[in-house]
Amino acid sequence: MTTTTKKIVTEVVAALKKLPSPENKKKTFWDYLKDQLYSESTWDQKDIKVIEKSIHGSLNKMSEKDLTAMWRETDKGYEKMDANKKVSPKEMKEDLTDEMLGQVMDRMDDNYSSKDSFFSPPETNYVAEKEDKGDSEDIDEEAIAEKIVDGDIDIDDADLFNDEDFGDEEESNF
User: Fold this and answer.
1) Integer Cα distance of 73 and 82 in angstroms
2) Is residue 142 part of a domain?
3) pTM
């Protein structure tokens, strides 16, 4: 089974919830980071390094094949592959760490939902196939559109709004 970005992020969050806070031993490191988010909206670089170290630990356990496959799914990986850049495993880990760090930070927000995640699942597109109605003629929409010019469209407000439909509003007892 290949390791996914979401799985690693979930493991990192779980690990941070087990670490003690540097300020208050009764709280977790996760709580400590969330407190910083809501009080300062910034984090100390040494705290960020703790998260990155946890991410690196998970990435270091992966095979190069799985690492490359995961990296290709990121925006940075896609851009670098598209530009035919040769990338080392170290650079792939750095790119993945940046991506996952953002996802870990997203989860600190109490309003987080997986729908808001940076990596959203691909959307399902439904395509309706045209039904064959036998000998019916196809409508040439382009030909019709060419015939219509701005002056040909004459819509009067009276055509859209019938005053009789709105007469009840004036007589309302509200």
Assistant:
1) 12
2) no
3) 0.59
